[in-house]
Amino acid sequence: MTRLGTSFATLLLALLLASPAAAQVKICIDAGHGGNDPGAVGNSLQEKDVNLTTALAFRDWANADTSDGGGGGSWNVLMTRDTDVYVSLSGRASYANSNGADYFLSIHANAGGGNGTETYAYASGGNADAMAHKVNEEVVAHLGTNDRGVKYASFTVLTNTSMPADLNELAFLDVWSGNAEILSDPANLDDVGLAHLHGIQRHIGLSAYTPGNNNNGPPQGDPTGTVSVTSYPQQVVGGVPFEVSVGYETDLYTQGQLGQIEMEAKDFHSWDILDHQIWDNNGQGLSGPSGGHTFTLNVPPGAYEIYFMVTLSPLGGGWSDQLDHDGTFMDPTDVLQSNGDNDGDGYDVAGGDCNDANPNVYPGATELADHEDNDCDGTVDEGTDFYDDDGDGYTEDQGDCDDDWPYTYPGADECNCDGKDNDCDGLIDESGSCGDGGDFTDDDGHRSTAGGDDPPGPQIGACMCHSGAAPGAAAPVGAGLALGLMLLVVRRWR
Predict the structure, then answer these.
(1) Does any domain span residue 150?
(2) Is 385 exposed, middle or buried (0-12, 13-18, 19+ CB in 10 A)?
(3) What is the pLDDT of residues 224-252, one digit of tens each?
(4) What CATH number does residue 229 fall under?
């Protein structure tokens, strides 16, 4: 081979090796919270469940992408947890580091009365920030949520990981419209998993690619259809058969194709399938362009809640082949142990007990902090906020005047220079609290003012504005600046 030929071959080999899809990318997916840590709670959703379902969906999409070979990437998916277990924050970061992950993505859901999707990186600029923007764009596009943008914070899983790391907050569980309303549908969580894959595909230089779809969407003339649950019981007795009816419309029949309807009864909290049936008209397919069917279902005895999920698909198809689906997740069915007073509170369903599986729920009961309508008046936990949303040890009913900000609670140090009423006394950054007469004006552009910050130069004095550090965690100025420079060099080198 000539020198020119050798050079060309070498160049071609280098280009192939440099291709984004040539090498397998190792991505660590972190489903936030878990086990005895439910995370945020709202609208009958627990954050730990939403996070895990989304993480598992990403794993499935990424594995499908690896097997597809039609234009996507090749992935090695690591998961900090794939079941409902508790893993410490440092343990999550250590797992990603010790397994040599190339990227880290932590999945969470928000609370605190906001609206929409946001994604966190450790700092502006660099690899993690670029990935955060692409992930956030894709999730907003797939879910149709309000775009809260990319933000920056020193979360443990972002600062203790040695690879580019982001944290995605899907939406707010305590706000129904446009938030929990979306996350309550398992199909949307599956779509979020695909959105995460699209974001990371774009970040490593690929086009957003949907495995199994050849990136061209469904071919023209594909069948369409709709399906819905038309009637179902609000309460059933475990072990006793009951009926759920569905209706459908589809052009499968007119296109000469066969169709089926699949029904699942699922545990409301664990999402375990308790009864599963497929109706295909004895193998003849759906009869005509519209119709309906009544399923006779049965679930195990006990005191819990269930919901129903129905899908319409071509004969022999599965979830990924569906034309439409419908569910009753937002209005679950109570499973009772018997037709009498199941929970021993002196009331049965006929007597107005709206949850005969919970002895703390009956007409006129005292409202408790348990996410139940204890007094059966149609409102959950009314009258006060029992929850410590920001983790500072105080709730709103205990005087926390801003339960979304962990440095605000009764008796907190006002010396935060953050424009908030930290000690909940009705005054914001009141004078005298830092020993310099309360000069909170930043004269030199270096964050804070009190404690001697405003002499010339970038000194940060004793009254330092909080930017994510825990109270009392500020390091000496010299050590903090040195550490910051070291982290900047390391992150830019990576």
Answers:
(1) yes
(2) middle
(3) 889 999 999 988 888 889 999 999 888 87
(4) 2.60.40.2550
